[in-house]
Every structure is written in C-alpha cells, then in structure tokens.
Design a protein that fits this description.
The protein contains 14 helices and no strands. It is mainly α and about 300 residues long. The two termini are about 50 Å apart.
Length: about 300
C-alpha cells in the first residue's frame, strides 16, 4: 500500500509553526523569529530566515519544504496579502493542521489492519509445498512433471494477480493528501482582516493552486450565505464548515476501510484460495497417487 506518509514531517512542521506563533505574539519581529528557529540548521527554516531578513516572500521559501510547509505557506501568504496578524493566523492554522493530521492518522490506522491481513494471506499459498514436504508427501518431485509443473505455474500466476489486485484496492482507499476544509480556513483568515468576500475567495483559490471540488465550494457558499442572512460571523461559520469537512473525512475514511475489508475478500476467494490448492493440495495429491497407485 503506497500511503502518503506525511504524519512524521507534519508533526515537526506544526510544532515549528506553533513556536513561531508564540515568538511573534511575544513581540518578536518576523526576521528575528525565523532567525531563532533556523539555528537548528533545517534547510527550510534557514531559507525562510534568509528571505525574511531581506524582506522577501517568506511563503515562497516555505513552499519548497513540501508537505505541511505548503499549507503553512498558504496561510502565511493570505495573511500577508490582507494584513492579518501573523501570530493569530499561525495559531488558527496550527489548530486546523493538528485536527487534519489526527483525521489522516485515524484513517491510515483503520486501513492498516485489512491491508496487512490481505498481504499475509496473499503469500500463504507458498507454504503449501513446505507443508507437503513436512508431511512426507514428496510434492517437489511431482512439480517436475507436466501436470504438477502446470499446477505450480498456475498457482504462482494467481499469487501475482492477487498481489496486484490487493495493492490496487488498497491504493484506491488511501486518503488524499489535501487537507479537508483548508480552503474554508484560508477564506476565514482573509475575512478576519476585513477583506471582501470575493477577494478572500480569490486568495484562497490562488493559494490552493487547483479548482476546489464542487462540494467544497458549496460548503463555503452556504456558510457565507448563512452569515448574510443571520448576521452571524462569517469567520466562525467558515471555521465551523472546515471542522465539519474534517469530521466528514474521518467518517468517510473509516467507511472506506470497512468497505476495503470486504473488497479484499474478492482476490482472496478468486486467486489466493485456488493458488493454495494448486501449490499445496494438487502436488500433495499427485505425490500420494505416485506413492500408492502407481507402484501397483
């Protein structure tokens, strides 16, 4: 299963962003805060400190770090564009990133068990021949004959098909690396400093880099419409929408893991069990026939 392993780097990045928010809220300048954090020698932090010292685009330096740094860079860029307080922006971003990381970890844990079980069962038919040898049935001799060799070849082919089939099913179930609700968070950051709705959405879309799914756009539009109708703070409604998006992602991920457990029974029944018969039972039966029937 080729998971998008972001959990480790994300934790470190989120911790750095939190320390940066604390330094800025304590009255430190942007360049001084980055300089303090860059003392550990991390390449991304060193680049950000150098750019901040020169008054350049810190967000561009952060994007080179990948993973969660791109998300921090998006929040930083939106805050700079609208003049939002960087410390408050980073605190909000850190809270959202931590919640999203927990969602992703929950989904990956839920997927790990069925995938691991399927992998073990996929290679189980290879034990057929050793078991036959242990029982004294001499299956190795039978696979040198046409019928036994054909059964062994077919069994190995089924194992290969089962492995590819299982891997594809697992890959389709891997959660997306996109953070649920992140575009709503970016719009909220922009609106928190008085930006217009159109500009806030434009900034969020530009930082996201791709067109948001229709469901995301609909959720943001619904939150903004509710704010206009009721007078409720749009920022809080958007952050609530982002939280709901992460909650839905957690629920969907768990449902996907449950469905995966059922779908993995298909390669087990179609490929793995027949492979076990071909590699374990057929050579053993041929060995019994050779040792009992043929001598007669």
């Amino acid at each position: 299963m080729s998971t998008q392993a972001r959990s480790g780097p994300d934790v470190a990045t989120i911790d750095v962003a939190m320390r940066l928010a604390v330094l800025l809220s304590a009255g430190g300048t942007v360049s001084a805060a980055w300089r303090h954090l860059a003392r550990g020698g991390d390449a991304v932090l060193v680049a950000a400190a150098r750019v901040a010292e020169d008054g350049g685009d810190v967000a561009a330096a952060l994007r080179s770090g990948g993973d969660a740094w791109r998300d921090i860079a998006a929040a930083w860029a939106v805050a700079v564009a609208v003049g939002a307080p960087l410390a408050d922006t980073l605190r909000s971003a850190v809270a959202a990133l931590r919640d999203a990381a927990e969602v992703r970890d929950d989904v990956e844990v839920a997927l790990a068990e069925p995938v691991a079980t399927a992998r073990v069962l996929t290679w189980l038919p290879l034990l057929g021949l050793p078991i036959g040898v242990a029982l004294g049935l001499d299956p190795l001799r039978t696979i040198t004959e046409p019928l036994g060799a054909g059964a062994a070849l077919a069994g190995l082919l089924l194992i290969g098909v089962s492995h590819v089939w299982t891997r594809r099913l697992a890959d389709r179930s891997v959660p997306s690396v996109d953070l649920p609700g992140w575009e709503a968070e970016l719009v909220a950051i922009a609106l928190s400093s008085g930006a217009s709705v159109d500009r806030a959405q434009a900034l969020a879309a530009a930082e996201r880099g791709t067109t948001a799914p229709a469901s995301v756009r609909a959720g943001i539009a619904a939150a903004l419409e509710l704010s206009i109708r009721t007078g409720a703070p749009a920022v809080e409604l958007l952050r609530g929408e982002a939280w709901l998006a992460r909650r839905r992602a957690r629920t969907q991920g768990r449902e996907t893991a449950a469905r995966l457990s059922t779908r993995l029974l298909l390669p087990l029944g179609v490929c793995t069990l027949p492979a076990f018969l071909l590699l374990g039972v057929v050579p053993a039966v041929l060995g019994v026939i050779r040792s009992t029937v043929l001598p007669l």
